[in-house]
Amino acid sequence: MICPRARRILCCRDGGTVVFLLCCAVPALAIPADNAFMAVLPQVNQTGGLIGAEIRGLDLTREYPDQTYQAVRQAWAEHGVIFFRDQHLTAEQREGFARQFGEIKTTQQLRKEPDQTKNVGESWHVDMTCFDEPPVATILFAQECPPYGGDTLWAGMGPAFESLSEGLRRTLAGLRAVHANVRKLGPSYEQTSPPEPSIAEYDAAIGPLHPVVTVIPETGRRVLYVNPEYTTRFEGWTRRESLPLLRYLFEHGSNPEFVTRFRWEPGSIAFWDNRQVWHLAVNDYHGMRRVMNRILLAGTKPVPSHNPA
Can you tell me the distance from the alpha carbon of 40 to that of 251, in angstroms, rounded to the nearest whole number? Predict the structure, then answer.
C-alpha cells in the first residue's frame, strides 16, 4: 500500500533491476548500495546559525547500510549536535543505533520526579572530561517529557575558539589544563548540586591534563577544549591564577550566538560530539516528570592542535 503522504515515485535501474523508491513528504536521497538493501542519505537541516542540525528521512527502527550511518556521523562531526524526532525505540534498538558509531561505555536512565527540584546537568559542562579518555559522544533518548520546559542547550566550542583574537588563540594553543571532578558530580539526584569546593581543594585536585585547543579529526576544525564543570586550572598555574582567564573563556563560550536549543518530545533523540560542544539541561519544569535514556560512547585522548592560530 502506498503511503498517503507520498508525493511521487522515482524509478531507477541498478544492475538491470528496476527499483522503485517511494518519496514521501520528507525527502531523503537514495543511492545504490553494495549490499542487498538501499542506502538512504538523510536530509540535514541546520537548527542554529553556527551549530546543530536536525536529521530527517530515517526510521531508526530499521537497519541501514554503512553509507547511511557514515552520512549521519559526518553531520554529527560537522554540526556538533544532531537531532532526530519521532523515533520510538526499544532498549535493544537504542543500543543497536549507538553501536553504529562506536563502543558503548555507559547506558543509564536519567529521571527527574515531580517532587524533585534539582536537575541532572543544569550547568554548562562536557560529559566526563575528568577521564583520561573522555566519552566521544552522548546520545540522549527522550522517553517521557513535561508538556513544557525541560529543554537542553548546546554551545559550540569551534565557533567560540574562532571568534577569539589571534593573540589569545596563540596563547591558548600552547596550554594544557587539569580536568577533575572536584565537586564530585554524578548522575544520581543526590549528586546534582554539591557545594563549591575551596581554592585549596581545586589546587590539590588530581586529574588528566588535556590540551586547551584540540582538533576534530573528521573536519580539521580547532576547538576550545575547556568547560566550566571540570576544567580546574592551567598546567603549572594555581587555581587563583587560572580563574580570570578561565572565567573569561567560560563566559565567552556561552554567548548566545554559539548556542542552539532543543525542545524535547517523546521519541526525540539528541546525539552530540563531546569533543566540541558544552550542554546544559534547563531546570524549569518543577512538579513534572522527565525520563531520558542516555548512552555514552567510548572515546580516546583529545587530539591537540598543532596550529597555534
Answer: 40
What predicted TM-score, i.e. pTM, was given to this entire model?
0.86
119 has a pLDDT exceeding 90: no
DSSP state of 125: B
Is the CB of residue 140 less than 8 Å from the CB of residue 292?
A: yes
Burial of 114 (0-12, 13-18, 19+ CB in 10 A): exposed
**Rounded Cα gap, residues 95 and 50, in angstroms:** 29
> At residue 249, what are phi and psi to the nearest 5 degrees?
-65, -40
What is the end-to-end Cα distance of the chain in Å, rounded? 57
In 3D space, the residue among 143, 63, 137, 136 whose CA is nearest the CA of residue 96 turns out to be 63
Q: Rounded to an integer, what is the distance from CA 102 to the centroid of its chain?
A: 14
Q: What's the per-residue H, E or C state across 64-97? A: CCHHHHHHHHHHHHHHCEEEECCCCCCHHHHHHH
Asked whether the predicted pLDDT for residue 81 surpasses 60, the reply is yes
Per-residue model confidence as pLDDT tens digits over 219-252: 999 999 999 999 999 999 999 999 999 999 999 9
Which of 12-16, 31-35, 201-205, 267-271 is predicted with the least confidence, judged by mean pLDDT? 12-16
pLDDT above 70 covers what percent of the chain?
83
pLDDT tens for each residue of 150-172? 999 999 999 999 999 999 999 99
Burial class (CB in 10 A: 0-12, 13-18, 19+), 67: middle
Q: Which grid cell sits at 275?
A: 569533543
List of E strands, 78-151? 81-84, 104-112, 137-144
* Cβ-based neighbours of 191, under 8 Å, separated by 6 or more: 184, 185
**Amino acid of residue 223:** V
Q: Distance between CA 92 and CA 111 in Å, rounded?
A: 20
